[in-house]
Write a structure and sequence with these properties.
Helix 11 (239-248) packs antiparallel against helix 12 (252-261). With 357 residues, the protein is α/β, with parallel strands linked by helices. The protein is built from 16 helices and 9 strands. The model has no long low-confidence stretch (mean pLDDT 96). Strand 2, helix 1 and strand 3 form a beta-alpha-beta unit. The strands form 2 sheets. A 6-stranded mixed beta sheet has the order 1-2-3-5-7-9, with helices on both faces. Strands 4-6-8 form a 3-stranded parallel beta sheet. Helix content is 46%, strand content 11%. It has helices at residues 31-46, 69-77, 82-99, 115-118, 149-154, 160-167, 173-178, 191-198, 204-214, 227-234, 239-248, 252-261, 266-282, 285-300, 303-314, 332-336; strands spanning 7-12, 15-20, 52-57, 62-64, 104-108, 111-113, 125-128, 133-135, 184-185. GO terms for molecular function: 3-hydroxyisobutyryl-CoA hydrolase activity. It holds the Pfam family ECH_2.
């Protein structure tokens, strides 16, 4: 095992370990890493000696902060297409994780954002700790939640997913459990013990029981106490009406949410709300990933993704100049363009049942 590799693989007992290994970049995913994880899953599925897969992140800061945003920024500025190739394989991997026939255990410790959610929250045993911070931050960089994020957020109770998608807020362990983004809380000091115990499991049932044995009650989250105004405000049919409701309901936290939303890309906000509403009717993860591929490819060619990454990641002036600059300027036709079929460039996951990761 070469410890310089961006994805490390080894086996302990009957558990195949996948370690995302770019700690200086907070384990941000690039195309080579996606291909390596997909290959590792294919091998593990066919290996009868492997009972389960365990995915973790190297370093102390988190599992994965998302895709390699700098590379996507440079590609978009240059008018390239490698990012769209990356997303094609990344979304296929997300679908493959959801379909993986053996227990897929994800340790969602520390920062887990964007693509990091994609390689964890579609698994069937998802573990959070007191250090977990989970988010889909795309609207803040002029993008739209992807990697199956609109599928996950659309399935959250009430309008919690809409709140998280539009504000791009991060949540801790308790709220991740409430929103259906995780299954178990395990204190970080027990992770080493859990990993060692999993190595001795011979069956899928044993894997699940071992995780449950190491789990504990999660710390209280914050969202449950705000469900009333979240559900009331975010069930509105437009972003403008959502913001108006948040601003006028008389709850300080709601007013803060309105102010936060108004700092995001107006186009990304409207497309995100439409994507979430549409996702609820699509039914399957594969169909939602197909939709997300359309929105991602369209966002890639627009002005807000480059400007958002510049403001948040490159120059860090935190002052993006969105185009259009206001919600009122984003038309229904502007939004509809993001959902238009791509012809022979379609991802096509929903049309190919059982597609391999």
């Amino acid at each position: 095992m070469n410890h310089e590799d961006p994805v490390l693989l080894h086996t302990e007992g009957r558990v195949r370990h996948i370690i995302l290994n770019r700690p200086r970049a907070l384990n941000a995913l690039n195309h080579a890493m996606v291909a390596r994880v997909a290959e590792a899953l294919a091998d593990a599925e066919l290996d009868d000696s492997v009972t389960a897969v365990l995915i973790t992140g190297a370093g102390e800061r988190g599992l994965c902060a998302g895709g390699d945003i700098r590379s996507i920024y440079e590609d978009a500025r240059a008018g390239g297409s490698t990012s769209m190739d990356f997303w094609r394989d990344e979304y296929r991997l997300n679908a493959g994780i959801a379909r993986f026939p053996k227990p897929y255990v994800a340790i969602m410790d520390g920062i887990v954002m964007g693509g990091g959610v994609g390689v964890s929250a579609h698994g069937d045993i998802r573990v959070v700790t007191e250090r977990s911070r989970i988010a889909m931050p795309e609207t803040g960089i002029g993008f739209v939640p992807d990697i199956g994020g609109t599928y996950l957020l659309a399935a959250a109770p009430g309008e919690l997913g809409t709140h998280l998608a539009l504000t791009a807020d991060a949540v801790g362990a308790g709220d991740a459990l409430l929103c259906g983004l995780a299954d178990h809380f395990v204190p970080s000091q027990r992770l080493a013990e859990l990993t060692a115990a999993l190595a001795g499991c011979d069956t899928a049932v044993g894997i699940e029981e071992t995780v449950r044995r190491h789990a504990a009650p999660a710390p209280d989250g914050e969202l449950a106490a705000h469900r009333e105004w979240i559900d009331s405000c975010y069930r509105a049919d437009s972003v403008e009406e959502i913001v108006d409701r948040l601003d006028s309901i008389g709850v300080p936290a709601a007013k803060q949410a309105a102010e936060t939303i108004l700092t995001k890309s107006p186009t990304a906000l409207k497309v995100t709300l439409s994507a979430l509403r549409r996702a609820r009717g699509l039914g399957t993860l594969e169909a939602v990933l197909d939709q997300e591929y359309r929105t991602s490819c369209t966002a890639f060619t627009g002005p807000d993704l480059v400007e958002g990454v510049r403001a948040q990641i490159i120059d860090k002036d935190r002052n993006p100049q969105w185009s259009p600059a206001t919600l009122a300027e984003v038309t229904e036709a502007d939004v509809a363009r993001f959902f238009a079929p791509l012809g022979d460039r379609e991802l096509g996951l929903a049309a190919v049942p059982g597609t391999a990761a």
